[in-house]
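Dear colleague,

Following up on yesterday's call, I've attached the two folding results inline so they're easy to grep. Please treat them as preliminary; we haven't cross-checked anything against experimental data yet. The first protein's sequence and structure tokens come first.
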Amino acid sequence: MSDTDFLSILLIAFGLSADCFAVALSASISQKTSSFWQVFRVALSFGIFQGLMPVLGWLAGRTVVDVIADYDHWLAFGLLAFVGGRMLWESFRDGDNRRRDTDISKGLLLLTLSVATSIDALAVGLSFAFLETNIVLASSTIGVTAFLVTAVAFMLGRKVGGVIGKRAEVVGGLILIGIGIKILLEHML
């Protein structure tokens, strides 16, 4: 089995960052102003959590990789399809849970959002263990991408409106499902 190529890792990073983008975009739309430090705190927190969760998943996956080596590509496909499907499902759900003028850059709210937006990265990290992916490259790529995507979303929030948030989740979900299908096809063909 070979390492996951950088392009796939980068696409996964953008897919995982869709939740960060949607949350940051929503926050920037709902807040009257966002200071540099608010944006920096959220982007840094999201980036750190997105970067660490794949490592935790990878560590968990390394403990069972020998047991399921013959089926690892199916598991990687299943995990990526599940995460991507979940993102698609969330993008089509009705309702808007945003609160106006809520500062998401501090305290328990920031911690909760950081964990919530990075849970998907834990499952992806588990699949990385089965694919023998370079976890340092993958987690740093995911973390930096999440940081940048979050910062960009804050900057765009005032200009583009709330519609893009849902579309970002759709694109992110489709990217993850596509990577899962690519992995499955590589191992089956």
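Below is the second protein, in the same order (sequence, then structure):
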Amino acid sequence: MGELLGKNGSNAKMIEKHYNVKIRMDDEGEVFIEGNGGDTFFAKDVVQAIGRGFPIEDAVKLFKDDYAFYAVDLREHFSSENSQKRVKGRVIGEKGKIKKEIEDAAEAKISVYGHTISIIAPHDSIEYAKEAISKIMEGAPHTTVLNYLHRARDHLLAARLKGD
């Protein structure tokens, strides 16, 4: 959890200052956030994002009200480690192509780390990233996912131009 603390605790201090909370870690690496309910709720997402492999530069996007964090635990969907590894590989794609396509279409950042796949994205586009990952988890061919992402990108652009 050194990533959470950052050099000389700089990451934790940045989160503490932004949300007016106190972050502490016990000897086992469990993180505790103390403060009022709303602040601890939002700080928790930033802490979780760092814990799920996002660099601080991506995690702090969650400081903005229009960004959201989502994580799917592959152990809840696949019992074998081989199945989890296969899905992670499919989400990444050859040379990172699928992951990059999802990130580009949904203006998202994706972390495939340990037993999770996590997303940081604007509220109006996170559902597209979640759906693309869900399709991959269900075994959809990459071409189906890429076609979906093309339509999602068009829909998102049109909605933003209309001001929705």
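For the second protein, one point worth flagging: Residues 142-162 form the longest helix (21 residues).

Best wishes,
A.L.
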